[in-house]
């Protein structure tokens, strides 16, 4: 890796114009919920800061996180986001192979101790001394620990690295284990989802490059900017839930009218993710918009959280977490007047747009046709 | 109760209550239905030519905006979002349509409602939500509220610290 190279230099070398570069910076700022004031800061960081070395390791996983990441919606991101970081090792994407490739895993931690980011897709199985996942002749768990030892921070991509996902579902024969149980002394940013949304993945990386620190995380290690609201909170079908209008069976009149999918097993009310605001495929749609309930893929243990098509019945697990983070221990009990005041204030704070765009008018009549992509999400 | 701050009760808010009381019949029996709560409007007031306030039901608490008397929102699609500016910041409201009321817009606060001890507790939450909606944001308070509270902090009563009454 040429040490002085910045992201901007790489872009220019690829023939990207400065105009496109600045547009990329402003779209990124919007996606992160930052105001126009931050566009300059992002541009400055990309022009001046050397790219961050990133080692991207794969354990037990299906590569859907990588698939999502390389399909980021923004045209620049699609081609160049991988250049923003110096992706020194990724066994799926890199050109080198064999000893040459594995040597990088020794070289980067030695050359850049405390400076590189370790991104982990998948998780290590611990049974039989880690023999269920061997990479380059060694158990994955050993490589993971040794590369993590000198990392600045660790990103846990997807449900596998964050919570365990399908390989950790009951009875979990290989003892597949989320990475925070193996790496205990580094900041870990969990970006759950199966896979996570591309814009969320690139957003997290851009934030770390621009500000040189880990984004603000919730109590369970997820970036608040993308995981502070449930699918249910911002779902465009929410008015039908409020009005008690449900799809009762597939393809009934309610389904054609776009009614709420709660009775068909939608896990939107217990799932923290940005799907209903950022959406997928460049903001085109998301599962509920295509007529299927949310399966809750970004939640812990989602394979064991009951059948996808059974309605949620655990009332305590239904919206209560929205407050669990804020009110600590009290949520399990009955909410009296004192805590209720706190709940009211917190709910309004959560609902507020974090973006500080300076709209001039009292209310913004340009309604959300473009909202998915423009990143007015929380 | 909801109109006890000097606002005149208006027809539209009554229709809102009626419509959601009817919806309550459809929701009764679903696991998130809190039978201790009743449909109630809280703190409706004129706002940018419309009326804004909070709505408590046994299954949610939302901010609601009702169109003003000379406004026609019938072309505003259900599920479409519109941004509104309040003293504390901007909020996205989603278009809805219900029963006799017709079109309205709502911004989700709590769903389902937490296990409020009684209607008075829910009302207190609604008033505090409206107070912070219509008051310029206090970054200090917000920073404190945004932090997850430790068990020790909770037991030490930190969550009550200079909380507004």
TrEMBL record, chain A:
Binding site for [4Fe-4S] cluster 2: 232, 235, 260, 266
GO CC, alphabetical: [Ni-Fe] hydrogenase complex; ferredoxin hydrogenase complex; plasma membrane
Keyword field: 3Fe-4S, 4Fe-4S, Cell membrane, Iron, Iron-sulfur, Membrane, Metal-binding, Oxidoreductase, Signal
Entry's transmembrane regions: none
Enzyme Commission number, as recorded: 1.12.99.6
BP GO annotations: anaerobic respiration
Segment forming the signal sequence: none
Cytochrome-c3 hydrogenase C-terminal domain segment(s): 227-308
Primary localisation category: membrane
Region (Disordered): 352-378
Domain called NADH:ubiquinone oxidoreductase-like 20kDa subunit: residue spans: 62-207
Pfam families linked: NiFe_hyd_SSU_C, Oxidored_q6
Binding site for [3Fe-4S] cluster: 275, 294, 297
Annotated positions binding [4Fe-4S] cluster 1: 62, 65, 160, 194
Comp. bias (Basic and acidic residues): 367-378
InterPro entries according to UniProt: Cytochrome-c3_hydrogenase_C, NADH_UbQ_OxRdtase-like_20kDa, NiFe-Hase_small_C_sf, NiFe_Hase_small_N_sf, NiFe_hydrogenase_ssu, TAT_signal, TAT_signal_bac_arc
Known catalytic reactions: H2 + A = AH2
Example GO molecular function: hydrogenase (acceptor) activity
Enzyme class: oxidoreductase
NCBIfam families per the UniProt record, alphabetical: hydA (TIGR00391), TAT_signal_seq (TIGR01409)
Protein name (database record): hydrogenase (acceptor)
TrEMBL record, chain B:
Lineage start: Bacteria, Pseudomonadati, Pseudomonadota, Acidithiobacillia, Acidithiobacillales
Domain of life: Bacteria
Name by which UniProt lists this protein: [NiFe]-hydrogenase assembly chaperone HybE
């Amino acid at each position: 890796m040429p040490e002085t190279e910045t992201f901007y230099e790489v872009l220019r070398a690829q023939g990207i114009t400065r105009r496109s570069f600045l547009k990329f910076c402003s779209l990124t700022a919007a996606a992160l919920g930052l105001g126009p004031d931050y566009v300059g800061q992002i541009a400055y960081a990309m022009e001046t800061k050397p790219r961050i070395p990133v080692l991207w390791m794969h354990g037990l996983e299906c590569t859907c996180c990588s698939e999502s990441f390389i399909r980021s919606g923004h045209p620049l991101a699609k081609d160049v986001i991988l250049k923003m970081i110096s992706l020194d090792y990724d066994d799926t994407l890199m050109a080198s192979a064999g000893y040459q490739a594995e040597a990088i895993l020794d070289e980067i931690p030695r050359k850049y101790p405390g400076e590189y980011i370790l991104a982990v897709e998948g998780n290590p199985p611990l049974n039989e001394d880690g023999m269920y996942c061997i990479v380059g002749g060694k158990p994955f768990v050993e490589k993971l620990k040794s590369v993590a030892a000198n990392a600045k921070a660790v990103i846990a991509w997807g449900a596998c690295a964050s919570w365990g996902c399908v390989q950790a579902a009951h009875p979990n024969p290989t003892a597949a284990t989320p990475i925070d149980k193996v790496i205990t002394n580094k900041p870990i940013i969990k970006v759950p989802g199966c896979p996570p949304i591309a814009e969320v993945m690139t957003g997290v990386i851009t934030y770390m490059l621009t500000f040189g620190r880990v984004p603000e995380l919730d109590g369970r290690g997820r970036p608040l900017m993308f995981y502070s609201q449930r699918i249910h909170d911002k779902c465009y079908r929410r008015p039908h839930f409020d009005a008690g209008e449900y799809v009762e069976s597939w393809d009934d009149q309610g389904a054609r009218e776009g009614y709420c999918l709660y009775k068909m097993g939608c896990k939107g009310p217990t799932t923290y993710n940005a799907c209903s605001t950022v959406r997928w495929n460049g903001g085109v749609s998301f599962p509920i918009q295509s007529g299927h309930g949310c399966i809750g893929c970004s939640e812990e243990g989602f394979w064991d959280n009951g059948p996808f098509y059974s309605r949620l019945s655990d009332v305590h697990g239904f919206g209560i977490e929205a407050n669990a983070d804020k009110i600590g221990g009290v949520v399990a009990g009955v909410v009296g007047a004192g805590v209720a005041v706190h709940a009211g204030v917190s709910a309004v704070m959560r609902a507020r747009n974090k973006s500080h765009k300076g709209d001039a008018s009292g209310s913004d009549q340009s309604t959300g046709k473009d909202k998915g992509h423009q990143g007015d999400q929380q | 109760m909801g109109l006890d701050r000097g606002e005149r009760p208006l027809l539209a808010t009554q229709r809102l209550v009626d419509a959601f009381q009817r919806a309550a019949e459809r929701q009764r029996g679903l696991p998130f239905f809190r039978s201790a709560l009743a449909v109630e409007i809280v703190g409706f007031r004129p706002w940018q030519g419309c009326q804004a306030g909070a709505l408590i039901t046994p299954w949610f608490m939302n901010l609601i905006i009702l169109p003003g008397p000379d406004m026609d929102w019938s072309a505003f699609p259900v599920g479409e979002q519109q941004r509104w500016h309040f003293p504390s910041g901007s909020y996205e409201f989603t278009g809805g349509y219900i029963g006799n009321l017709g079109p309205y817009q709502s911004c989700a606060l709590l769903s389902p409602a937490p296990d409020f001890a009684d209607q008075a507790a829910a009302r207190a939450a609604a008033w505090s939500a409206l107070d912070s909606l219509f008051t310029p944001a206090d970054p200090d308070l917000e920073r404190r509220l945004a932090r997850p509270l430790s068990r020790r902090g909770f037991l030490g009563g930190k969550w009550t610290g200079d909380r507004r009454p």
